[in-house]
Design goal:
With 662 residues, this protein is an alpha+beta fold. The chain has 17 helices and 29 strands. A hairpin with a 6-residue loop joins strand 12 and strand 13. Helix 5 crosses helix 7. Keywords: Lyase, Periplasm, Signal.
Length: 662
C-alpha cells in the first residue's frame, strides 16, 4: 500500500526544491547536518514546543534525558519530526550520511526505549506514539533508495510501530476521545494500518481508528469550526492530522468519510476567518505567532476550494509539496482563488468574533473573545481583543512561552492580567493552578453581533466578579466604524464602590507615549491613537511577550485605573493612522436626555460623538438598563430613539438611526 510519496516523486521534488526554494533548502540541510551530529533543535513551524537552543549528545542519545528542566523538550525529542529533515536532505543531496544517521538513530531508539518501563515515561505517552507512527513512516519512505535501506531494518521499524499501535488500541478513554491527543494517536494507527497492512491486527486497527476519528470530528469540532480546546496551535495539529488521513486515503483509492472532509472544511474555514492581515493565527490560548498559509493551502488542495485558496499561498509551498506530492502543483494551480463575500464574522459557539474591513494584507482587524475557556490550553482571556492597524499588529495576546510547572512566566501568561481585558479590585475573574489546572473560569454571558457595510458591533460579558462582597457583572461592547475607528465601552453593573483596570498589551516593536487621558502608539509604518472620555489614571508597565515557545521578549502595556460607585461605563476610542498620516477625527461626549428632555444620570446612559468631517459624524449611545421610567425614549442631538444601544449617522442633511440592541 502507498504512503505519502513514491521514490520517483522524491527525486523530482528534490530537483524542484533546490531551484525554487533556496531558503527552505538551506534550513533543511543545516538542520539535517545538526541531527547527523546528534545536535538537536526543534525548529519546524508547527512544532508544538519549539526549542532553537541546540543540545548535543556526544555519545549515545539518551532518549529520556530532560535538559533545560523542561520535559516538553524530551517529548519533542521522542516525536522524531527532525528525521523528516534527514529524509528531505537525503532526497535533495543523495548523501548517504543522512540515511546512515536515520537508520542508526531509529535502531538505537527501538533498542533502547522500553515501552513498559516507567523510566521512559517521557518517551512513551500515547500522544508521542501517535506522532511517531506518522513521522517514522513519512521519513522511511524518503530513504527507500538508500544503500542502508533493507527489508530487515524496515521490519524492525514496522514491528516496533505495530507494538506501539497495539498499545494505542488499548489505551483509549474519555480524555483521549475529547483531546487532540486522541486524534493524533488515531491518525498514527490509521497511517500504520494502511502502509503496513500485513499484520494480523492491521484491518481491525484501520476500522477502529477511522471510526474513532469520525466520532472525534463530531465531538471535538464546534459547529462554527473552532476546535473546542480554544487554542489555534492545537486546532491546527488536529487539522494537520485530518489532512494526513485524507491524503493517505486518497493515495490508496480509499473513500474519505464525509465527516473527515467536513472536519477539514470547518477547521480550515475558521483558520481563514481568524487569520490576521499578516496571515498569522492569533496567539490565543497556548499558541505561537504562526503563519497559517501552508495548512490552508493543503486544505484548499484537498477540498479544491477557491475561497480557502484566497487565504493560502498562490502556489504550493515547500512543506506542502512533500505532503501532497508532485502532481499537487498542477492541480493546485487550476484552483481559482475566490475572495470571500464577507469580511467580519462571528464564530458564536466558541465565542470568537473577527471584525475587519477586508481580507487584504493592509486591512484593519480586531479579534474579540467571549466564550468557553476550552481545555488546559485555555487562558484567562474573557473580553480580550487583538487589534491590527492597516496590516500591522498593535494590541496582542502576549503568547505562552513555557509549560514548566511553577514557572512564574507560565502562571502569568495564562492568567487574566496578561490579557487585554478588564479586572476589578485587582482580582482575577478566572483562576488557574500550576501549568495546566483551571480552578474556575468565569461564566460568559450571551454575546451580540451585528455586521453592516460601514460598521460592526459586538458585545459580551461574564459573571467572574459576582463572588465579590459587592458583586459586579461586567460587559465589553465594541463598535467598529470602518475602516479605522473602534469605540470600546467597558461596562460594570454594581451597587458598590470598586476599582477598575483596563489592560492593553502592545507588540514589542511599539513605542508608547502617554498624555492626559490619551496615548499615542508609534508603529513601524502606522500609528494608533487612544482617547479616554473620563479622567483616568494611566501608566506604562514593562511586560513579557512570547511569539513562540521558549522565546521571550519585553513589551510595553498600558494599565488604566479608575474608582467609582454604582454602575460605571469607560469609553475608550482607538483611531488608526495609515502610514502615520494625521487625521482630523474628533471625539467628545455629548448630552443625553429623555424624550421629554428630563435628566438622564451617567450611570444609566451616555453618548459619544465621532466627528469625521464637517459633513459626516456619528453618535454612539449606550444604556446600562431596561428603562423603568415612564419616558422610555432618549434624545441626543435632536434625534429621538428607543433602544439600549444605538448608532446615529449624520451625513450632510440626512440622519440614519441604527438600533444595535433593544
Amino acid at each position: 500500500m502507498k504512503g505519502f510519496l513514491n521514490n520517483k516523486e522524491n527525486f523530482q521534488i528534490a530537483l524542484l526544491m533546490i531551484d525554487q526554494f533556496p531558503e527552505e533548502y538551506k534550513i533543511v540541510i543545516d538542520t539535517a547536518n545538526m541531527i547527523v551530529e546528534q545536535n538537536f533543535i526543534f525548529n519546524h513551524k508547527w512544532d508544538m514546543e519549539v526549542c532553537k537552543t541546540p543540545y548535543k549528545f556526544n555519545k549515545n542519545i539518551i532518549w529520556n534525558y530532560v535538559p533545560f528542566q523542561d520535559p516538553e523538550w524530551t517529548f519533542m525529542l521522542n516525536r522524531h519530526k527532525f528525521w523528516l529533515d534527514l529524509g528531505k536532505a537525503y532526497s535533495l543531496t543523495k548523501d548517504e550520511k543522512y540515511a546512515k544517521a536515520f537508520f542508526n538513530q531509529i535502531s538505537h531508539w527501538i533498542d533502547s526505549v522500553d515501552l513498559k518501563n516507567p523510566t521512559f515515561e517521557h518517551c512513551t505517552r500515547t500522544i508521542e506514539m501517535g506522532i511517531r507512527a506518522i513521522n517514522w513512516i513519512k521519513a522511511l519512505e524518503l530513504f527507500k533508495e538508500s544503500s542502508f535501506f533493507n527489508k530487515n531494518i524496515e521490519k524492525k521499524i514496522s514491528d516496533s510501530l505495530y507494538n506501539q499501535c497495539q498499545i494505542l488500541m488499548d489505551i483509549y478513554d474519555d480524555f483521549r476521545t475529547l483531546s487532540n491527543w486522541g486524534i493524533l494517536q488515531n491518525t498514527g494507527i490509521l497511517v500504520f494500518s494502511i502502509v503496513f497492512n500485513n499484520y494480523s491486527q492491521s484491518k481491525e486497527m484501520f476500522n477502529t481508528a477511522l471510526k474513532r476519528l469520525i466520532f472525534q470530528c463530531q465531538i471535538q469540532i464546534l459547529p462554527d469550526g473552532i476546535h473546542w480546546e480554544q487554542s489555534p496551535m492545537y486546532q491546527n495539529e488536529v487539522l494537520n492530522c485530518l489532512l494526513d488521513v485524507a491524503i493517505i486515503l486518497r493515495n490508496n483509492n480509499l473513500d474519505i468519510p464525509r465527516e473527515i472532509l467536513d472536519g477539514i472544511k470547518k477547521l480550515a474555514y475558521s483558520n481563514l476567518i481568524m487569520a490576521k492581515p499578516n496571515h498569522h493565527q492569533p496567539m490565543q490560548g497556548d499558541s505561537d505567532d504562526t503563519d497559517l498559509r501552508d495548512i490552508i493551502t493543503r486544505a484548499a488542495y484537498i477540498l479544491e476550494d477557491g475561497y480557502l485558496k484566497f487565504g493560502a499561498y498562490k502556489n504550493i509551498d515547500f512543506e506542502s509539496i512533500w505532503e501532497l506530492g508532485l502532481n499537487s502543483i498542477e492541480t493546485y494551480n487550476k484552483i481559482k482563488a475566490i475572495q470571500p463575500d464577507f469580511t467580519s464574522a462571528q464564530l458564536k459557539e466558541s465565542g470568537n468574533f473577527y471584525l475587519r474591513d477586508s481580507f487584504l494584507e493592509n486591512s484593519n482587524y480586531l479579534w474579540f473573545r467571549c466564550g468557553p475557556i476550552g481545555s488546559g490550553h485555555g487562558h484567562g482571556e474573557h473580553l480580550h481583543f487583538d487589534l491590527s492597524i492597516y496590516g500591522e499588529n498593535f494590541i496582542s495576546d502576549p503568547g505562552r512561552c513555557t509549560y514548566v510547572e511553577e514557572d512564574i512566566r507560565r502562571e502569568y501568561l495564562r492568567g487574566v492580567t496578561a490579557h487585554n481585558t478588564t479586572i476589578i479590585d485587582k482580582k482575577s475573574f478566572s483562576e488557574f493552578k500550576g501549568a495546566w489546572g483551571i480552578v474556575n473560569s468565569a461564566y460568559t454571558l450571551n454575546t451580540h453581533f451585528i455586521s453592516e457595510t460601514y460598521f460592526d458591533y459586538v458585545e459580551g460579558g461574564h459573571l467572574g466578579y459576582v463572588y465579590l462582597n459587592n458583586p459586579v457583572v461586567t460587559f465589553r461592547k465594541i463598535l467598529y466604524l470602518k475602516p479605522n475607528i473602534w469605540i470600546v465601552i467597558d461596562e460594570f453593573h454594581t451597587n458598590g464602590e470598586h476599582t477598575y483596570n483596563q489592560i492593553f498589551n502592545f507588540d514589542p516593536e511599539k513605542k508608547v507615549n502617554l498624555k492626559k487621558n490619551s496615548a499615542e502608539i508609534i508603529g513601524t509604518t502606522n500609528n494608533l491613537k487612544i482617547h479616554w472620555l473620563e479622567n483616568i489614571d494611566l501608566k506604562k508597565v514593562e511586560g513579557i511577550f512570547s511569539r513562540e515557545y521558549n522565546k521571550l521578549e519585553k513589551n510595553i502595556k498600558i494599565i488604566s485605573e479608575i474608582s467609582e460607585k454604582d454602575n460605571k461605563m469607560i469609553f475608550t476610542a482607538f483611531i488608526g493612522q495609515k502610514n502615520k498620516e494625521k487625521n482630523n477625527i474628533k471625539i467628545k461626549e455629548v448630552p443625553i436626555v429623555r424624550g421629554d428632555k428630563t435628566f438622564v444620570p451617567k450611570t444609566e446612559a451616555r453618548a459619544i460623538e465621532i466627528i469625521i468631517s464637517e459633513t459626516e459624524k456619528y453618535i454612539f449611545v449606550n444604556s446600562t438598563k431596561d428603562i423603568a421610567h415612564q419616558k422610555k425614549s432618549y434624545l441626543v442631538e435632536n434625534t429621538l430613539f428607543y433602544g439600549k444601544v444605538a448608532l446615529i449617522k449624520k451625513e450632510k442633511k440626512n440622519t440614519e438611526i441604527k438600533i444595535l440592541k433593544y
